[in-house]
Prephenate dehydrogenase
Amino acid sequence: MTITIIGVGLIGGSLAISLREQKIATTIIGVDNNEANLVRAKELGLIDTSMPLEEAFAQSQLVILAIPVDGVLRLLPQLLDKATKQVIMDVGSTKEKILELVKDHPNRGRYVAAHPMAGTEYSGPDAAIPNLFLHKTMVLCDVKHSDEDAVEIAEDLVDKLQMRLVYMNAEEHDLHTAYVSHISHITSFALALTVLQKEREAGRIFELASGGFESTVRLAKSSPDMWVPIFKHNRNNVLDVLDEHIHQLQSMKALLENEDYDSFYKAIQRANKIKKILK
Amino acid sequence: MTITIIGVGLIGGSLAISLREQKIATTIIGVDNNEANLVRAKELGLIDTSMPLEEAFAQSQLVILAIPVDGVLRLLPQLLDKATKQVIMDVGSTKEKILELVKDHPNRGRYVAAHPMAGTEYSGPDAAIPNLFLHKTMVLCDVKHSDEDAVEIAEDLVDKLQMRLVYMNAEEHDLHTAYVSHISHITSFALALTVLQKEREAGRIFELASGGFESTVRLAKSSPDMWVPIFKHNRNNVLDVLDEHIHQLQSMKALLENEDYDSFYKAIQRANKIKKILK
């Protein structure tokens, strides 16, 4: 099958590697508004060729949008306008606004809303890696509004990429990702800013940084081009979880201020229950 | 050299492995108030033998305290009372209170205050691993108050373990670790509590958890036995950094509330500067 990938960065490029490896794609066409990314994607062998969107779209059975969610919002309606037999998937991190936008489109059925729970803090075609999606979770949202054959193509892709498939509605998806993905990025950005700020007065501060620090701060390397649109789309959920997180930090601070170490101990014990989730 | 390790958990056990491997230790004696840990440490081959502290101390050239910092505070003065030629090191995560406590002890010179910037979120002898310290940073604090031969033994150990050596005073150490280690643990505990709390109303929330979440939350598995004494010892610094971190989160929240996405973008760009620190 000929597949067009719009956005040949970390996610689009890694998808290209896996789609080729799993023999889902016979030809991969890259589309990107950054010409340098297309050149690099070809050099890296991620895509076979590149061409203008319209042309690529006409030749493809599957078109995957792997661009920031504000880009999906802009492009998806135009693609649906032109869709005949093509299946269009996105892989964006928010879903409610996108699905709301196209819900009454006459070709809505050609679209499958997808979100692979995989990524790294890097971006661009050079960040593309094999096996990024292996054994990770793929969320398909509101599939009841997608055509049967479109869902089958998406499910087959999930299956061949050896991903775990989860069905969800968009509302649930955006709530859950706020809690297990979006907030992690905000805390990481805030922690980086906290420490970078302090570095100005205490220059040697990073000399002692080790694995624990790196672990909690690595997401702060993530691209604002990707993340600002996510926070914008999922603003209400992100504000809710941010409120709760600030509240938890303030509670821990109060315990420390009051030197209530017994309660602090118990709070850590409650937090330790995260062991049941993480290996 | 015969070395006694007090506390045969993650750090003490991992030290035992490396001290033996690097032929620094000929015999390793384990001391632990948890008998099961001693049995397990022997089974795992971490220690050669175990015996009561007094007996072990008398036979050793080097005694390493690898227990929570409140334990160091309790034991160190007693060990110094008995010290003749022994060198006593601790590997605790805070230094000011400990050094303050023993500063006028007649045998103060036998003690070297050390802190290896290495660890994992696990604890106990089964968490001990080879190479935990390889290429990590070891901080030695206020070495000018330690005897020359004691510092030499500590430096030789750092060298043979292939660690990077940093000298600091205790005040600097406690400030810096608050920023690059202690706060990471607090944000992780608070994030775990935030999400665990939400799970009660939205059961499937962890289905979508992936690498980013795991990265920011893994420290929340850390033991309260180790961490409450650290927060207690380093309370003022931890409160300062916690204040600043909450302030950063509140600023990001305000930008989102005001839908000031340009400033939000710039804040993320500033946070991205953490790239210069992390590989």
